[in-house]
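Possible regression after last week's pipeline update?

I re-ran a chain I had predicted before the update to compare outputs. Posting the input and the new output here so someone can diff against the archived version. Not blocking, just want to make sure nothing changed silently.
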Amino acid sequence: MMKRSIKVAMLLCVVAVLLGVLSLKTVGAKAAPSNWRVSQNRFSSNTCKWSVVPSLNGNSNSALSGVATVSANDVWAVGGSGSQLGAGYTLIEHWNGTQWQVVTSPSPDLYNTLTGVAAVSASNVWAVGWHANGSTTQTLIEHWNGTQWSVVTSPSPASINNELYGVAAVSASDVWAVGFLSTNTATGAVDQTLVEHWNGTNWSVVKSSNPGSGSDHLAGVAAVSSNNVWTVGNYANSDGSGGTLAEHWNGTSWSVVKSPSPGSGGDLTGVSAVSASNVWAVGYTSINSTLQTLTEHWNGTSWQVVKSSNVGQHPSFWAVAAISASNVWAVGSDGTNTKFNQTLTERWNGKQWSVVASPSPGSFNTQLLSVAAASTTDVWAVGVADSNTLTEHYHC
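New output (post-update):
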């Protein structure tokens, strides 16, 4: 198991290795290269498809890791600009119905990144991630009040790493953020799940379960109600075994709910809920030393694997958005002989998962890392294309 969500690790490693260590002076907006600027298509009433919509970059390597919709004309995307090995800055962009624009956001440390975003309303949006100045990382939570983004104090209880990857909002006074922390032990550093809660006044750590004897991580969170919240990730044992991890909040405590781990090294990277008895989680697993997509469904009683399509050489899902019982999107990436990664989008129609064509404008690394829907025919996915932000829109 990797210490961090594989989607972020793959992104950062590719940027660091292929493009080198770069530093930034500002997070001024810079348009994506014209060779993959594809205008939003105007489709006929019975044709829907994915297309690239121009988005902005910081002054150097840029990527978007989270997206949330308030309405068709109010969409937020968050990520980072720079390198984890050098200087890095938060990157927040807003869709106003016509174009993406960079909105100024704080970067309190040498390295800063945002990995997830959730919207309560047009004037109440949360973004989470982490920041670092040296060998340790601290949680980073930022809030939009309708006028500006500001840092909100959040706990960093561990001595080494404290990182947040997912956020979900029930209401203005009920918001959850999840990730992992690392602490030193007699046998070395150990990763454990990290769950934090906003009660309308402050963020606090809420005790969560750690079933693995090695390391445990949380990558995504979804809320049905105040007493029904799901978070997913992975666990690892000291002997190298491990698998998927699903935990549930019943209004009082977090507890592990058994989830399938087909193959070896299964990891759930995203979760989304239609209702209390209809929840989807996605990720990847390794079968015969080959990565494959993994989709699991909660029917109100148990988690079960649902067959999904596998294309390319190492298909993986990074995020999921459930619109209805018969309309769910999963996004990620897969490889080919000529590209390290290309986008992967699949849709659940109530009966089966099937691949839906999506653009892959990058030359060596193109991934979709998050997805959110404003409506059935208005869906956004964000990620990275080489060293540039990537926003794709499904529209009719």
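Follow-up from reviewer: compared with the archived run. DSSP finds one helix and 30 strands in the chain. Marking as no regression found.
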